Amino acid sequence: MTNINDNHVDDHSNIISRIGKCIKQWFIQDFDQNSGELDAAFKNNMLVVATLIVAVTFQTGINPPGGAWQDTKVEPGGHEAGKAILASLHLPYNLFLILNTLAFSMSTQIILMLVYNSKLYFEVVVATVSMVATYGMAVWSLSPDKDVKLRYVFMAALFPYLWRLSFQTFKTFFINKPTKIGKHIKQWFFQDFDQNSGELDAAFKNNMLVVVTLIVAVTFQTGIKPPGGAWQETKDGHVAGKAILASGLHVPYNLFLILNTLAFSMSTQIILMLVYNKKLYFEVVVATVSMVATYGMAVSSLSPDKDVKLRYVSMAALFPYLWRLSYQTFKTFIKKNETTK
């Protein structure tokens, strides 16, 4: 009888240990696929999935369900032009923003981890961070102060990065037990996604092209159709066809335009670099330049002259190309000096 009970206890112990092992693999081994690294094809597919989630959540945050009010009513229970209509329903709108921001932020984190230590990483980071800041400015501008708890939205945006930092810290101290703690602090976020060769393999390059193309698509749409829409008629000091957001919130609208333009311009630059020296390159250049010019014309047309500093927007558009030119010039100069020595 005792042996039977002991066997029964052992069976339960085995089941519990198996469950514990599975949980550990799910949450601690970073999707370990025997080799300890993410398979290249799986990594590329994850990049596509994360990019698609970023695209749809970005658009949803910029243009929330129900749209924005087109006029201002001051009476009790009134509303302000350019603010989200859905914000009238306080709890649903707050939950919508928190969940959408969590999905958006988690996916941008995945993208940054997957492209870590690859060529063009700086450009991808600048484009992604600018897009995140654009999202934040748009959400803040669309949300009525009294109705929306933006601190919870901010916490949702930070959660993926804090979670990764906490997890990697735990892993470093209690699992890997490195001999020199803190030697590679910057790799705490990225140690499971490092591409040792530092080169872009063909499939990964193709997926990076997908990433930046989607960033171009969402930032182009956002520049053409800014949050809050445009005035439908000329009255009360505003002009039909001008962005509603620009009328009352000058600084947020300028920041929104600068950051959105930086993400858009940086991504178009990456596209031109990735397809350089390929067939149809001329056609791609013409299409891209035409799209950039269309974006510029739309932004200029939507922006009231007295409220928007378009020179800063132009500087943001030129920055990626000037930075790349400066970097390449510096790199060439250093190489020549080393050869001379």
Automatic annotation (TrEMBL):
Record-annotated membrane-spanning stretches: 93-114, 120-140, 152-170, 255-275, 280-298, 310-327
This protein's record includes keyword Transmembrane: yes
The keyword Transmembrane helix appears for this protein: yes
Keywords: Membrane, Transmembrane, Transmembrane helix
One GO cellular component, as annotated: membrane
Domain PGG: 43-131, 205-293
InterPro entries (UniProt xref): PGG_dom
One Pfam assignment: PGG
Name of the featured protein: PGG domain-containing protein
Taxonomic lineage from the root: Eukaryota, Viridiplantae, Streptophyta, Embryophyta, Tracheophyta
